Amino acid sequence: VTQLFTTTIVAHARVMVDELNRELVEHVALRNAAAECFRACLADPGSNAEFMARVACDSERETLLVEIGPTGVAAPGEVQVPPPLVLTAEQEAELQQRWDQDHPPVRLSESQLEELAARAAELRAQDAPAEKRGLLSRIGGA
Amino acid sequence: VKRLDFTSDARSFGASLKRAPSSPGGELLRNAVDAAFAALELEHDDERQFRFEASLDYPEDAVSIVIRPTGRTVRRKPPFEATPVLLIPRRDA
Does the distance separating the beta carbons of A59 and B63 come in below 8 Å? Predict the structure, then answer.
């Protein structure tokens, strides 16, 4: 490792590993670190999404920084397809919990049920169309 | 966002890293931290303590790893060595 090394690589995901190999050819350990970081990004290796990698190593102070992330740019003339969303079990549980909080079960009071039944009967009496009558009879419990 | 945030010296690094989350994203981040630490090319018995700050931002797909020394060292106890004892027979024995 050199005393101070810093580089920034911008490349599309499908060629990022090649670019890392080229740019960090003399720093094998740094290249491995950057490649592992890129793997951890869960980026589709065939994607056209552009990524930026920043690698900085100060061997005197023994400090290392590796950052890789998408720039939000796709290759010109090509459509960027977002990767499929795969939720972990804990993410699913969190979403379910949030849904349950935002959508508490609806419970009608007795008076509301009676009111609905009365309204259904009233509409039935007005000779509603056949499909509506069926719906209303279900609402009214008739 | 998955995070790994811990301090360790070189000798305890493997054990400290193993205590990190083992969910799919966490596993990849752990590998990345492992490779990043190897890039510093330290001796395995290095007693200096390092700070590891790593994050995996999902679904942003961004990874950040920073490793820096804390300035402290973790002194190991020297291995136990038995002190030789000279047994002198009592005169009245």
Answer: no
Please, are residues B55 and B3 in contact by the beta-carbon 8 Å criterion? yes
Nearest in space to A56 (alpha carbons), one of B40, B58, B30, B16: B40
pLDDT in tens, B14-38: 888 888 766 666 788 888 999 999 9
Specify the pTM: 0.60
Q: Give the DSSP letter string of A8-38.
A: EEEEEHHHHHHHHHHHTTT-HHHHHHHHHHH
Among B24, B29, B36, whose Cβ lies nearest the Cβ of A33? Answer: B36
ipTM: 0.70
In chain B, positions 71-90, which contact chain A (CB-CB < 8 Å)? none
At which residue do the structure tokens 């491995």 appear? Answer: A32
Three-state DSSP at B60 gives: coil
- CA A83 – CA A64 distance, rounded (Å): 30
B contacts of A61 (beta carbons < 8 Å): 68-69
The per-type count for chain A, helices as H runs and strands as E runs, is: 5, 3
A84 Cβ neighbours under 8 A, 6+ residues apart = none
